[in-house]
């Protein structure tokens, strides 16, 4: 009995110790569980921050596009590639790039106008040559149809009469069209008279008229 009571007493002590240990353990905070459950909430970007970030990105894209545009201009415009000794080895500023681009575009416009004028002049020359070609073909055909015509030599007097008739006809139109108030007005009138009264077709009609008139006088 004494042994039984001793064992019972020890069992009661162990039981109380376990009870106290479990109670104290339950009262102590469980740091491991809290560390596993605790997490920091993600940063929520505000509407103002999103707008600021979008504006910054848009501004950067705009700056990049402008920079690319200036770089393309420097690569395209020949005068931008030429060394400017007043600037030296420094990079061309945007203002200089723009000015050189404007100057080059104006130069191209002048060249285009000059080429258009040259093309117009060449077209007139081609038209005159075509008229001369037709006239020569008619002369050759007339000579083939009448081989005996024209064998007689034309005198210098006849040549002079033909020349005089042509010049008289031209002088009449020249005198009626030209004003001599000032040299500037004279120059303008001369060019206007040449374009109007010295066309190949007009000269052809004058020559034909003079030749017909001279032929009627001779025969």
Automatic annotation (TrEMBL):
Coiled-coil regions listed in the entry: 105-132
Keyword Transcription regulation in record: yes
Chief localization: cytoplasm
Domain BHLH: 50-108
Biased composition regions of type Polar residues, renumbered to the chain: 15-30
Xref: Pfam families: HLH
MF (Gene Ontology): DNA-binding transcription factor activity, RNA polymerase II-specific; protein dimerization activity; RNA polymerase II cis-regulatory region sequence-specific DNA binding; RNA polymerase II-specific DNA-binding transcription factor binding
Stored InterPro entries: bHLH_dom (IPR011598), HLH_DNA-bd_sf (IPR036638), Max-like/E-box_TFs (IPR052207)
Keyword tags: Activator, Coiled coil, Cytoplasm, DNA-binding, Nucleus, Phosphoprotein, Repressor, Transcription, Transcription regulation
Composition skew (Basic and acidic residues), residue ranges: 37-48, 56-65
Single biological process term from Gene Ontology: positive regulation of transcription by RNA polymerase II
Disordered: region residues: 15-65
Subcellular location: Cytoplasm; Nucleus
Transmembrane segments annotated in the record for this chain: none
Listed GO CC annotations: cytoplasm; nucleoplasm
Assembly mode: Efficient DNA binding requires dimerization with another bHLH protein. Binds DNA as a heterodimer with MAD1, MAD4, MNT, WBSCR14 and MLXIP. Can also bind DNA as a homodimer.
Free-text function comment from the UniProt entry: Transcription regulator. Forms a sequence-specific DNA-binding protein complex with MAD1, MAD4, MNT, WBSCR14 and MLXIP which recognizes the core sequence 5'-CACGTG-3'. The TCFL4-MAD1, TCFL4-MAD4, TCFL4-WBSCR14 complexes are transcriptional repressors. Plays a role in transcriptional activation of glycolytic target genes. Involved in glucose-responsive gene regulation.
Protein name (Swiss-Prot/TrEMBL): Max-like protein X
Organism this protein belongs to: Sagittarius serpentarius (Secretary bird)
Lineage: Eukaryota, Metazoa, Chordata, Craniata, Vertebrata
């Amino acid at each position: 009995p004494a042994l039984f009571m001793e064992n019972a007493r020890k069992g009661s002590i162990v039981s109380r110790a376990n009870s106290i240990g479990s109670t104290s353990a339950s009262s102590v905070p469980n740091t491991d569980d809290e560390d596993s459950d605790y997490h920091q909430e993600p940063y929520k970007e505000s509407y103002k921050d999103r707008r600021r970030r979008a504006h910054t990105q848009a501004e950067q894209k705009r700056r990049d596009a402008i920079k690319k545009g200036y770089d393309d201009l420097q690569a395209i415009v020949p005068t931008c590639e030429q060394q400017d000794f007043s600037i030296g080895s420094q990079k061309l500023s945007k203002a200089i790039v723009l000015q050189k681009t404007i100057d080059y575009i104006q130069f191209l416009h002048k060249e285009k106008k000059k080429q258009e004028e040259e093309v117009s002049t060449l077209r007139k020359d081609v038209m005159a040559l075509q008229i001369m070609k037709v006239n020569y073909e008619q002369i050759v055909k007339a000579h083939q149809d009448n081989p005996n015509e024209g064998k007689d030599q034309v005198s210098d007097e006849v040549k002079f009469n033909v020349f005089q008739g042509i010049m008289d006809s031209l002088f009449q139109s020249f005198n009626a069209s030209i004003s001599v108030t000032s040299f500037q007005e004279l120059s303008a009138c001369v060019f206007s008279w040449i374009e109007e009264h010295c066309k190949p077709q007009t000269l052809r009609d004058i020559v034909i008229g003079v030749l017909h008139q001279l032929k009627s006088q001779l025969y």
